[in-house]
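the three lines:
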Amino acid sequence: MENQPVVIQYIVFFAKAAGVTLGISALSLAVGSVIGFGFSLMRISKQRILSLLTFAYAEIFRGTPILVQLFLVYFGLPIVFHINVSAFTTVAVSMILYTAGYMTEIFRAAIQAVDRGQWDASYTIGMTYTQALFKVVVPQAMRIAVPPTLGQFISILKDSSLASIIGFMELTKAGMAVRARTSSTLLAFTIVTCLYFVICYGLSIASRRVELRLKKA
Amino acid sequence: MPILRTEKLDKYYDKLHVLKNVSFSVERGETLIILGPSGSGKSTLLRCLNQLERIDGGTIYFEEQPFTYDRRSVYRNRRNFGMIFQSFNLFPQKTALENITLGPITVGKVPRAEAEREALALLEKVKLLDKTHAYPAKLSGGQQQRVAIARALAMHPKVLLFDEPTSALDPETIGDVLEVMRKLALEKTTMIVVTHELGFAREIGERIIFMDAGEIVEEGLSQELLARPKSARLSAFLDAVLHK
Amino acid sequence: MRGSYTFDFMAVLRYWPELLQGAYVAATLIIFTFILGTVFGIFGAIGRISRRRTVYAVSTFYVELFRNTPLLVQMYIFYYGLDALSINLSAFTAALLAMSLNSGAYETEIIRGGIIAVGKGQLEAAFSIGMTYTQTLRKVVIPYALQVIFPPLGNQFIGIILGSSVASVITVPEITYVALNIGSRSYRDFETFLVIWVIYLVLNLILSALFKLTGRIAFQPIL
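prediction for all of em together
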C-alpha cells in the first residue's frame, strides 16, 4: 500500500471510511428494524402496559439529541459492564437503540395504515388475531413501510457522522484525520461533503423510484 | 327452530343508540333482506351477527345456543358465518385462487391440494375460472365481489351475510353478482342481505325487514311489504328509492 | 474491578448555574436558527416553485445539498472551513449559520408544501365569487397554508432543538458542551448526561404539548 501514489492511498482511505459509514448504518437499520418491529407489535397490543412502554421508548429515543444518547452509552457502558468497550460497540449500541425507536413508529404507522376491511375479511374467514396479523396485515404493512424506512436509512447515514466525536473512524473522522495530516482543510471537507452527498442523494432518488413502483403494483 | 335469532338487541356508539330493541329470526335456507336508509343501523346489525361488533344489550342465538364473547367462542362462532363486504376486501397481494384457499389452509388446516381443488370448483361456480391466477387489481368490481363470495363459501359457512354487496359496483357488473346470489338462494343457502336493490329484494328475498333509526319498523313477506307498505316511513323510503 | 456503582446526582446538580447558562445559550441559538431558517425557507420555497430555470436550479441545489449532508459536517465547514479561508467566525455564528441554512432547506420544502396544498381549486373558487387577488391571498391562501405548515414546522422546531446539541462539538457553550465540561470536572459524566437527557426530554414534551395547544386554539374552526 505504501508504494502506491499518495492520491490512490487517500482514495482508498476515504473509500474504506465511506464503507464503514454504510456498514454501521446498515447494521443499525437491520438490528434496529427487528427490535422496532417487535416493539411495534407491542405498541398496537391491547395490553396497555406493553403499548405504553413501547410508546415511551419511541418518544424518548426520538425526542432527545442523538449526541446525548451517544455520550450516555459511551459513559454508561463501562459503568454497567465494568469493562472498557470499543468505540465500535458504543456506536453500534447507541445507533441501534435510537433506530429501534424510529422503526417502532414507522412499523406501527404502516400496520395501522392497512385498511380495516382486511382485518374484517380475515376474521370472517375464521382467522384469529394472530393469524390475521401475520398472514394478511403485516405483509401489506411491509410494503407501506418501505419508503419511510429508506428515508430513515438516509437519516442514519447522516447521524453516523456523530460517531466521529468519540473517535470512531467513519467518513467524517476520516476527513478530520486527513485535514490534520495534510492541513488542506478545504480539500478534505470538500471530499467528505461530496461523498455524503453522492451517497445520500443517490439513495433518495432511488427511494423515489421505489416509491413510484410500489404505487403502481 | 330458526337457525338464527336475536332478542331485544341494543347497541350504542358512545351516546348514539344505534340499535334499539331489535328482535327477529331467520329460518334455515331462507333469504332475508334488510332494507333501510343510511344510518338505520342495518350494517351494524349484520356485523353484530358474526361478532365483528359487540352488543350492549339483548342476546343472539345461533341454533338456539346463545352467543358468548370469550375469545375462543367468538373465533369458533365466526366460522358459522361468511361475510361479503361492500368494498370486497380481497387480499391485494394474493391471486383469486390464493384468496379463496387462504382460509381453508390456515384456519381449516385443509391440505393445499384439496383446498385448491375446492377453490377451483367454487371459481367455476361463480364463473371466474379464467381469472384463477389474477390479482384483485386486475379484476373488475363485479369480478372481485364474485371472488369474495367464493372466498366466503370456501369455509362452508351455515349462514351468508351480505353487507350492501352491490352498492360499490357499476351497473353493468351488478348483474353478474346478483346472478350468483340468485343461484345461492335457489340452492337454499341461508342468506341475510343488507341492500337497497329493490329489484333483487323483490325477486329473491322471501322476507324483508325494514329498519330505520336503529329499530325494526316493518317486517313481512317481500311481495307484500313492497307492494303495500304499512308504515309511513317505509312508504317514504320506497318513494325516495324509486324516484332516483 | 467489579463493584456496584454509586450514583451521585448532587455532584451534578451543584453546577446548576452553568447548566442554566448553557440553556440560555442554547435557547438563543435555537430561536435565532428558527427565525433565520424560516426566512431562508420562504426564499427557498419561492425559488422552488419558480418557473425560471436558474432560480429553480439554485434553490433545488441548496435544498438537496443541505438535506443530504450531515449537520456536523456543515458546522465544521462554517467553523474550520471558513477559517482556512481567513474568514474567522465565532463558534456561535458558525453554528447559527450552519443550523439555519440546514433548517432552511427543510423549511423550504415544508412551506412549498403549504403553498401547493392550497391548490388551484381554492383559488379559482375565491376568484369566481369575486375576490381580488390580494383578498384571496389574505383570506384564503395564507390562513389555509399556515394551517397546513403548522404541524411540520413544529416538528422542525423540535428538530432544531435536537440539532443544537451538535453545536457543542465546535465549542458553542450550549447544554451539551456544559455537560461535557461538568462531567470532566466532577468525574460524573454518566450522571451529568442522564440529567441533561431528562432535561431535553422534558423540554421536548412541554414544547410539543404547547405547539399542539397553540395549533388547536389558532386553527379552531369557527362554529
